[in-house]
Amino acid sequence: MHYEGENVIKVAGLVYFMLFCYLYDYFFGGYKLFESGDPIQIELGAALIPSVFMFGISEANRLNEAKIKDLEERLSKLENTSGGARDEE
Q1: If both were cysteines, with which of 10, 30, 64, 78 could 25 make a disulfide (CB 3.0 to 4.6 Å apart)?
Q2: Residue range 56-64: average pLDDT?
């Protein structure tokens, strides 16, 4: 199930991931992919940016689908419990 601090943990994880990517680019020269002029490195750098966004979108989609499924299950349980109480009356 879900608990109150779940969103805080997700945001903290996203911030740590962004910080890691920034530090990786800074220390290992990721920004030089675009300055070198090598076509393979430029294509690699250009492909890296959309792939990170696509991963984020697919991860958000997966989490939202899981939440919808959980809510549908809870709704069906509530409908089943309220329907059973009406039959007994």
Answers
A1: 30
A2: 82
